[in-house]
From TrEMBL:
This is RGS13 protein. The gene is Rgs13. Residues 13-129 form the RGS domain. InterPro entries: RGS, RGS_sf, RGS_subdom1/3, RGS_subdomain_2. It comes from the Eukaryota. PANTHER family: REGULATOR OF G PROTEIN SIGNALING (PTHR10845), REGULATOR OF G-PROTEIN SIGNALING 13 (PTHR10845:SF32). It holds the Pfam family RGS. SUPFAM superfamilies: Regulator of G-protein signaling, RGS.
Length: 142
């Protein structure tokens, strides 16, 4: 269960938000309200991709990531520069666990600089903190 303490820690740094138990899901939900969830979806998909040990599965997932996020006009195209895109294309033949690291790093920085500050200022986050504050006050014995 999400605690007020965890939610308050998210305002300390983007890393605290993205590495906490509930932070990524809450942040993703917020980004969906902005219709800008492709970055967090890509970042989370990369985290899962790095854990793949089977080369066959890695190839399939790498191609799926490329099709969904990397190739020009992809349905959820992320904002990365051409050299990074070309490097990924070269690595797709035999993708390693670090194949998407540079793109993931760029997307992390985009989120940290752009959508994370908006999240902290959003009514979405303010209401969440308020509801957690209210529920923690109600559960405190007098």
């Amino acid at each position: 269960r999400l605690s007020l303490e965890e939610a308050l820690q998210w305002s300390q740094s983007f890393e605290k938000l993205i590495t906490s138990k509930y932070g990524p899901v809450i942040y993703k939900t917020y980004l969906e309200t902005e219709h800008s969830d492709e970055n967090i979806n890509f970042w989370l998909a990369c985290e899962a991709y790095k854990k793949i040990t089977s080369q066959r599965k890695r190839i399939l997932v790498a191609r799926k990531l490329f099709t969904n996020y990397i190739q020009p006009q992809a349905p959820n195209e992320i904002n990365i520069d051409s050299p990074v895109r070309k490097m990924i294309i070269r690595n797709l033949q035999e993708p390693t666990e670090s194949c998407f690291d540079e793109a993931q790093r760029i997307i992390y920085m985009h989120m940290e600089r752009d959508s994370y500050p908006r999240f902290l200022e959003s009514k979405f986050y303010q209401k969440l903190k308020h509801s957690l504050q209210t529920s923690s006050n109600n559960s405190t014995p007098n």
